[in-house]
Design goal:
Chain lengths: 248, 248
DNA sequence: CGCGGCCTCGCCATTTCTGGGGAGAAAAGA
DNA sequence: TCTTTTCTCCCCAGAAATGGCGAGGCCGCG
């Protein structure tokens, strides 16, 4: 490796270090926005976005997408169409957009419109999950051919994972009102009840499975519903699931 | 900074690089075990453990804890007592053991017993969550005073986060992947129906919201139920949620 | 052009869930 | 020790969901 190149690399590393340090100190939206732009420039890519979906479905984020696109995305509720969301929601690990399912009419229409707003044809997204069903996605996207993109992601994978986490940390600082929504834990019996209900058991079946009377079971369901702020059983099960209190 | 120290640092970095590369290639338990030990030596700490809890409650892991301790932990179902698990389960971010709640009889007894098995008084754990309630914890632990530990975690935070992710990646390779039964897509109306039901709306409310008759709504619910292989509405909503077909 | 999928609407009877009460025992924590 | 939480059981009536029957129009695909 030539001396110059090594020097450049070292200088580059230093630049990234500086941005990361700023990211770690960041506590306001504008700072995160600025860091996003610096990182975009550093990586020499088209876009870089952090997108957060709370357990209640609210979403927000920051990054380099145009305001038009963000607004349209929220307006049109593209959360429910976006293959990146759909795909990453079921995945553990960072994923290249190429590996997602872009067949399907809605997906292709979405893709076309996204590219109209300057979103790249290539992308790489890092999913992060929270304890109560929160879901965040850190995405870099770019317009280039497959080989170039593969090289980029291979080279910067580690940095991207780290940045995703730092963004996530910063985003949580932004959001102060998590506490009230902090999941009140369910009692073991309540967890049992919710779990079997989520598995499709009727109340009678759950009661029999747990060897308790159906009346008793009802008390659990009701108290779980109360704790979860749910208006009916289905709602309670949905909340318990998306807050990670039960697993099926 | 002296030249020698810089050299040492660089050499150290190279050593870590080598271990990480091995970790990234690892695909078998023994390799991961070996990497754990190398990392322990590299960081000069007492223990380093990766611990995985699957959605069905099964747990496994690898690391440098003694077999005796691991066996005891599993036997005694310490998962339900361990403040590290309890604490990290509700947290987004890596956490220092000092910040956990060690009051409580069971917790203190657990702590005492753990230290008897050589687990350090200091620890730092990185939680990682999966799409279906999986929960993994990467932990480093050591015996030292607070200041030394604070310095260590501050210095190696980034590396630890990365290692946690690489371990996680490798652990997933280990796991005989349960075939993620191809989620059959729901029609848009079915998605609407499931979504509102998951939000706690009654049938009548959903029908009104979607401006369709309640009977039509029933057809959607039934076809969604059929597609999802669910026996009732709650079951269908639960499946739609955990397959990521709907988001609330 | 037929086939399948999607969207829309109706009636019946039966089962299941929900909301409002009340009450005692056991276990865990402060 | 005392308090709180958890677990267990019981009543009733009204609301909601389910299962099974049928019907027509619209769209895209091969």
């Amino acid at each position: 490796m030539g001396k110059d190149r090594a020097l450049t690399q070292s200088r580059q590393k230093g630049r990234l270090e500086k941005i990361l340090a700023e990211l770690e100190r960041a506590s306001e939206f504008d700072q995160l926005q600025s860091v996003s732009e610096q990182l975009r420039d550093y990586f020499e890519i088209d876009h870089l976005v952090y997108h957060w979906v709370s357990s209640s479905g609210q979403q927000y984020g920051f990054g380099t997408y145009s305001d038009d696109w963000v607004q349209r995305y929220v307006e049109k509720d593209y959360l429910r169409v976006d293959p990146v969301i759909q795909g990453c929601y079921q995945r553990f690990h960072p994923v290249d957009w190429k590996r997602l399912d872009w067949t399907g009419k809605a997906a292709r229409a979405f893709q076309a419109e996204a590219q109209g707003f300057g979103v790249g044809n290539q992308g790489y997204s890092v999913p992060i999950r929270g304890p109560n069903g929160q879901f965040a996605l850190f995405t870099v996207s770019h317009n280039c051919d497959d080989a170039t993109w593969a090289e980029f992601t291979e080279k910067n994978r580690r940095e991207l994972i780290l940045i995703a986490h730092f963004f996530n940390h910063a985003a949580l600082e932004l959001e102060p009102d998590r506490a009230p929504e902090q999941a009140q834990a369910l009692s073991p019996r309540e967890v049992d009840a919710m779990t079997f209900l989520a598995m499709g058991y009727s109340r009678a079946q759950v009661a029999e499975t747990l060897s308790i009377s159906e009346h008793t079971l009802r008390v659990y369901i009701e108290s779980a519903r109360f704790k979860l702020g749910a208006v009916n059983t289905t709602h309670a099960v949905a909340r318990a699931l998306s807050r990670g209190l039960i697993v099926i």
